[in-house]
C-alpha cells in the first residue's frame, strides 16, 4: 500500500479500526517518540501475559520498570547468557554433525532460542526440572493459539479448544508462580545470575522487594514471549541470506576463524566480530523479525498537514522504512558493508528500526545481539550452509513475527578447521553452565 499510495496512508481494519501508517522521516521524528501506548488489539492479543506485564504499563510506570530491568540485562547477565548459549548451541551443532539429510534449521532455532532464553531468565532448573518442561509445553500452546484467538470478534465459547487454551493460560501462570516461589526460597538467590533472581533481588528505596511476585511473573513471561521467536526468526533469515551469498558467508567464516582461532566464543569476542555484526544488522534490515510497531493515539493529532483523530492506531512500518529508496541505495540487495562503522552512521534516525523506537522499544536488543552472534559464530566455525534446491522461501507474518513460511531446510556441510584439510573442528573447552 505504501508503494501505491505514498508515505502517509490510512486504512481500516474491519469497519471501525482506523489505521494510519507513516513512513515519512520528518513526521516520524516529530511524533514517534511521543506515543507511549499500545493499541487495543495488542492488548487483546497479549492479555495472557498478565495485567502486570510491562506491555500494559502506563508511560510513567514503564519508565521505572525499564530503569530497573535494563541494567539487569547488561554485563554479568550477558556473560551468563553466553555460557548458556554455548552449551545449547554446541548440543544443536553436534546433532547437525550426525544428520544424514538436510537440516530444518528454522525449527532448531526455535528450540534453542526458547531453551537459551528460558535458562537465562529462570536458571538451570528451567531445562532440568519437570516444572521447567511443563512451563515450556504450556507456553508454546498458549502462544500459538493466542493470535487466532485474538482475531475472534466473539470468543468461541462453544469450542473445547478455546477452553483448553484458557486452561493452559492459567496453568502457565501457576507454573511461573511456582518457579518464583522456589527461587524466593533458594538460599543462594543473591549469588545467581539468571534474570529472575536479579529481578527478585531488586529493592525499592526502603529496602523492600521492588517487584511483587505478580509483577516479577508477568515481567519474566513477557521477556520469554518477546525474546524467543524474534531471535529464532532473525537466525533463520541470516542463514538464508548466507546460503544465498557464499562470498559473504566465506568472509564471515574467515573473520570468525581469525578472531576465535578454534576456541568457543566468549562474550568479549563478540564485539570483535565486526563483519559478522554487519551481516546480522543487514539481515535485520531486509527481514526485520518484527516488521511493524503499533501505537494507540490518545489524543487528536495535527502533523505534517494531516489530522489524525484520537483512537486511531499509528503504524510504524519498519519493513518499509528499511527499503526506502531515498535512503538505501539498491534497497533489496544484501550488502553488509552498509553497516560498517563509517557507513552505518549516515542513516537518518528513523530509517532503521529492527528493535522499534521510543518508550516501547525492545528491552532485549543487547541480549538478542549477543545471543544471535554467539550462535552464528559457533555455527560458522563448524559448518557451511547451502539451501536445499527444492526449498521455497517465502516470508510470512506468523502472529507478529516474520517467518519463512515453509521453514528453512539447509545442507550443513562440515568445515575443516581454519581451512586446513582433514581435521574437523572440535572444541577442547567443555561448555557448561552448571556451576555458573
Ligand atoms: C532479533 C531479536 C529481537 C527483535 C528483532 C526484537 C524486536 C522488538 C520490537 C520491534 C519490539 C517492539 C518495539 C516497539 O513497539 O517499538 C520489541 C519489544 C520488546 N522486546 Fe524485543 N526483539 C528481539 C529480541 C528480544 C529479546 C531477546 C528480548 C528479551 C530478552 C526482548 C524483549 C523485549 C521486550 C520486553 C519488549 C517490550 C514488550 C512490550 O512492551 O510489549 N526482545 N522487540
UniProtKB/TrEMBL annotation:
Cofactor(s) the record lists: heme
Keywords, alphabetical: Heme, Iron, Metal-binding, Monooxygenase, Oxidoreductase
Cited InterPro entries: Cyt_P450, Cyt_P450_CS, Cyt_P450_E_grp-I, Cyt_P450_sf, Cytochrome_P450_Monoox
Signal peptide region: none
List of residues binding heme: 362
Matching PROSITE patterns: CYTOCHROME_P450
Domain of life of the source: Bacteria
Keyword NADP included in the entry's annotation: no
Protein family membership: Belongs to the cytochrome P450 family.
Name this protein carries in UniProt: Cytochrome P450 120
Organism: Halomicronema hongdechloris C2206
Lineage of origin: Bacteria, Bacillati, Cyanobacteriota, Cyanophyceae, Nodosilineales
